[in-house]
Amino acid sequence: MSEATGIGASVKRREDLRFITGSGTYTDDMNQPGQAYAVFLRSPYARAKIGAIDSSEAMAIEGVLAVYTGQDTAADGLGDIPCGWLVKSKDGSDMVAAPHPPLAVTQTNYVGEPYGIVIAESVAVAKQAAEAVTTEFTELNAVVDVASAAQSEQIHEGVVDNLAYDWELGEKAATEAALASAAHVTELDIINNRLIPNAIEPRAAIGCHDRVADHFTLYTTSQNPHLERLILSAFVKIAPEHKLRIVSPDVGGGFGSKIFVYAEETAVIWASKKVGRPVKWTAERGESFLADAHGRDHVTHAELGLDADGRFVALKVRTTANLGAYLSTFGAAVPTYLYGTLMAGQYKTPNIYVEVQGVYTNTAPVDAYRGAGRPEATYVVERLVETAARELGKDPTDLRRMNMIQPGDFPYETPVALVYDTGDYEASLDKALEHSDYQGIDARRVEARERGKRRGIGFACYIEACGLAPSQLAIQLGAGVGLYESGEVRMHPTGSVTVFTGSHSHGQGHETTFAQVVSTKLGVPFEDVEIVHGDTGRVEFGLGTYGSRSLAVGGSALVMASEKIIAKARIIAAHMMETEADNVTFADGVFSSSNQQVTIQEVAFAAYVPADYPEDLEPGLSEKAFYDPENFTYPAGTHVAEVEIDETTGVVELVNFVAVDDFGHIVNPMIVDGQVHGGVAQGVGQALLEHGIYDENGQLLTGSFMDYCMPRADDLPDFTVDTTVTPCTHNPLGVKGCGEAGAIGSPAAVMNAITDALGVKDISMPATSEKVWRALRRE
Amino acid sequence: MKISITVNGRQHDVDLPQTNALLVDVLREQLHLTGTHVGCDTSQCGACTVHLEGRAVKSCAILAVQVDGQAITTIEGIGTPDDLHPMQAAFRDCHALQCGFCTPGMIMSAIDLVQNSDSLDNRAVREGLEGNICRCTGYHNIVKAVLQAQESM
Amino acid sequence: MYQFNYHKPATLDEATALYKEADDPIYLSGGQTLIPTMKQRLAAPTDVIDLAGIDGLSGITVSGGVVQIGAFTRHAQVAESEAVRSAIPALADLAGQIGDGQVRNRGTMGGSVANSDPAADYPAAVVGLGATVHTDQRDIAGDDFFKDLFETALQPAEIITSIDFPVPTRAAYQKFPNPASRYAVVGVLIADFDGTIRVGVTGAGPCAFRACSIEDVLNENLDPDALDGVEVPDAGFNNDLHASAEYRAHLVKIMAKRAVVQLG
User: Fold this and answer.
1) Does domain A484-627 have CATH number 3.30.365.10?
2) Among the CATH numbers 2.60.40.10, 1.10.150.120, 3.40.50.1100, 3.30.2350.10, which is that of B86-152?
3) Where in chain B is the domain with CATH 3.10.20.30?
4) Band of the pLDDT at C35, cuts 50, 70, 90?
5) Which of A618, B30, B125, B144 makes a 20 to 30 Å CA pair with A219?
């Protein structure tokens, strides 16, 4: 029996064969004839004026081709790297976007910021030359602390109080009034710790310029090559789009950090024309730590008002979000439209008001990292709810249950601008309680106590909005691009199919799931469908992969294109069977009339060899579609963490983790489970291990895996994952995004478990052993 | 400076550009065996793991000159698409990889772990893989794959 | 990595001669610390002298109540050695907790001890077991070997050849690993030599040391609870991102208690 390959089957991934045999092609595995190598000049200071740069000694080293600085890119007319989302402040004014030149020209604003590029015959020579460049810096006071950034020295000219924007959402007066009359108000001060994404493949780029055609090709580690092309073309002015090709081959993880347009890739493609040679750059991990966009980094005060019965009456949130030194590609949107809009969570809180001050600091830019705004929102809501339950002496699951939006309430419009289409939150909660044996927790606490361990359980009932949409609304709200996705289904004369998607896979398994979708829709063998992605030279357009959008948006585009194929093929089939199209049915790759059948492969052949063919119908069988979703998808679920804390050392062990998620219909359950596992591990990492720390001078203290603690296998238990299903109401597959859920629910669940075990109101992430030990000592 | 090494059963005479060339550099750049990856600069992520004289080592923490005369096996040397090593097969079977970047190193470590342990349970696999970082899978399916491969190795 | 001259001497004499001739030489043993350090351009020796070609530096022998381990013996060999496991199981345990599997397959005992990294594991055994460090020139008592942060009693050019670990009645090693680097935040080795207790501590201070206050208490009463009242002063302890001096002092006590429990 052959393996099932349709929608819903756990098809083994076809991309795996190359990865497990070492035959993947990542950017650093590629080389171009005659290539030279780049090393960047990076600021040793968090904030410094750039004075004279002397590269004469470097240029004298044999094998050095060029040393360029920000002066050179500026002189060449290279544009700034833009932020792709314009956020407006409370008073209606536009956010203040500090200019972000690809290479710093007059001032550097974070440690590791590139201000020059050295190009040589080898990396070793380029490094030697970079060390030989002398730069006169005048060090300035660094602004590092997010909470006091507004009261600190001004970093950028024209940015008063280092404030990019002061944004709000919801009804302030009504929320404050409801809080004032609430029977109980739970307050929390919360820090959402800075994270460093650390995809295991460091960023890399090879820029090439064809002098004859004046055409550029950039091979790079991008999650969204078309967006990169658009920005490099329209804003940075590298070249017009038809003269610029971006190829994103196998990419070793992204988690958001490879969405953005960075200085290094920009400088490499620009420099390839200047030196007339392909230029290759591969980040060392230390560079990734310094110069990849970081994630999270919020300071928040939040208040939840409840009535005498425990019903939520109001939620007020004030957050200061660290944007870093510059606004990265989506940096402005993450702590606003991807954060404030999620504050209703799974609950019918009638009054919500969120205000967010986005501040600049002399740290690496902060942008989307797996979950992007939604883990932060979930952390606020779910830490508050759990704390409120404790303060009121209620069971935390009961308190949640009585406030949850019920299945009959959908579509449900929240006070913070979203309309949830569907869900059944209690179903996930019930299943999660069963898997986690909530009934037995008291016995487990007692048993643990006998072993000198404090056992605690914590919940997070999260919701997320993913597959950002729709384009028109997003653009009204400040998005600089549409949020649709493109797809092309090209059926060949012999019936095999090449599919082109604007979505990009860097671990998600598109080559498998998208083939499952198209082969099921067209009724052709799975093996006959091949997926092409990650090359602006082959794929028409696309917005890439971020925000758990690939299947919900990109997959939907492929369904639309497949349906167009079927519609056209039906006309051809009807002609072949000498009947009307209306009389033809299609199932499992076969068109049937009352007395005849033709396969879609036969139709394809007829379409390309149109001997006897419908009049007025174009030959060929290839269709494109752009799918623009009418709404977000709203995955939701319950995560339950159980921890044991060693009373003597403060070490927290995650002993059990249950995730029950509603992703709507599922195309490949194996892959979905894997996405949840990975997301949970990153969320647990945030809660227990990971923290990007700068010292008061803006030096990154956690600049390597020696000091930045990545989750290892022995830090984690096996996870229990399960799903419930309420299909998305507005996309053709009924699917919701699954890539970020794990990272969204888990930090709050883990921290709720830790505070439960300790009996303390709050402890900041990551809950390191020393922090926990200190909390235990305060008892 | 010349060294002679046996890689995946084939002997290579390699002319090192400089004495400071790392084993991983020679594998990737001179022998074009790009399945061995570099994921960090502090010799911690384990993406560069290969077998040296049969044991897992980090090829980014070894100078090429140090292995003159020795035998190295890389991910390219343990199986082919048509004839996978049981560990490779188990990784695919259990969905133990996503982006694939850490995978070669993870597989090479896992093979050493299984070969040099009596009988591994879940915890022992987790502890045995502490020299390899994966950012995608949360390790759940990697552990499952190693336990599965153990049965057929 | 900066450029350097590479040497692979065949004898100790040749190695020391090379060392003395070079401007800024360094010995290379397993290289698990040195090579990453050089790779990050934090060390720039002019000459790297690889000790791998010298015969007789590797191996394990047990006789006369002493486990002798050659300096070039790799951590995995010690961890997996039946001889070590039956004579001093705590030493095999310790070796099995160094770094990670790949590091243990490559790193050597001599390299680790000579480097005197404050967070390395072996120094706890050298001190705790009262080892004797043999060099090409002399014998150095374990108690006198570690001097300070990355500083030992070794003279320039001097090479560790082997280390003798006296076999105790029983011993135990307890490590509190740094979750990021897996080095020891604190490691405590407790050895019982016919009722005389030695306590070696690594990770807590600038280099490994004997915890005399703990030894005194345990010599009176070899009971984990006896340590409850002991003050471990944190003066001079390491204080960094991963653990304050105060927390390290607390961990020394906790790891010591656990080691006593493990002694059985």
Assistant:
1) yes
2) 1.10.150.120
3) 2-77
4) very high
5) B30
- Res B75: pLDDT: 98
CA–CA distances in Å: residue C19 to residues A83, B119, C27, C137: 56, 46, 8, 14
CA-nearest residue to A197 within chain B is: B135
Residues of chain B contacting A19 with CB distance shorter than 8 Å: 97, 100, 103-104
Q: What is the arithmetic mean of pLDDT over B89-110?
A: 98
Q: b vs e for A118-133, b when ≥16 Cβ sit within 10 Å of the residue's Cβ?
A: bbbeebbbbbbbbbbb
Are A137 and A49 within 8 A, CB to CB?
Answer: yes
B4 CA: distance to closest CA in chain A (Å): 23
Give how far A699 is from chain C: nearest CA, Å. 13
Per-residue pLDDT tens digits for A377-407:
999 999 999 999 999 999 999 999 999 999 9
- Give the CATH number of domain B2-77: 3.10.20.30
Q: Taking a C-beta distance cutoff of 8 angstroms, is the pair A233, A244 a contact?
A: yes
The phi, psi pair for A570, rounded to 5°, reads: -65, -40
The predicted structure's pLDDT at residue A1: 40
* pLDDT 10s digits, A324-335: 999 999 999 999
Q: Are A40 and A114 in contact (CB under 8 A)?
A: yes
Whether residue A493 has a cis bond before it, omega within 30° of 0: no
Question: What pLDDT is recorded for position A477?
Answer: 85
Segments of chain A with pLDDT less than 50: 1
Using a CB–CB cutoff of 8 Å, tell me whether A689 touches chain C.
Answer: yes
Q: For chain A, give every domain's residue range.
A: 31-140+201-252+258-291, 377-464+631-777, 484-627
- The CATH number given to A31-140+201-252+258-291 is 3.90.1170.50
Q: What is the ipTM for the molecules in this complex?
A: 0.98
What stretch(es) of chain B map to CATH 1.10.150.120?
86-152
The torsion angles phi and psi of C38, rounded to 5 degrees, stand at -70, -40
What CATH number has the domain spanning A377-464+631-777?
A: 3.30.365.10
Chain A residue closest in CA terms to B86: A20
Please state the pTM of the whole predicted model: 0.97
